[in-house]
Design a protein that fits this description.
By secondary structure, the protein is α+β, with helices and mostly antiparallel strands. The chain contains 3 helices and 5 strands. Strands 3-5-4 form a 3-stranded antiparallel sheet. The longest helix has 15 residues. It is globular.
Length: 85
């Protein structure tokens, strides 16, 4: 694993630039309330689906602090839309 750090987020590992329009900008991270609002899922459902492997896992920002990459949530939502269509 690289020791590179994400610009503006020096405490995080190197930025993930997958599927981003401007790979020089750091990835937006979403905390749980924002993920719940975007997906319409309750906290217990998020964690149940993560355990089952059907929802993206968050990244740890601290001992009791996690966030989801916005690109992971976008991809999950897009996959759900294509399955529903």
């Amino acid at each position: 694993m690289s020791n590179a750090r994400c610009p503006g987020f020096g405490h995080l590992p190197a930025c993930d630039t997958r599927n981003r329009k401007d790979p020089t900008m750091p990835e937006k991270l979403n905390r749980r309330p924002e993920v719940e609002a975007r997906t319409g899922l309750a906290r217990s459902t998020l964690y149940d689906w993560m355990k089952a492997g059907t929802f993206p896992k968050p990244i740890a920002l601290g001992t009791r602090l996690v966030a989801w990459r916005e690109s992971d949530i976008d991809a999950w939502l897009a996959a759900r839309e294509t399955k529903a269509a």
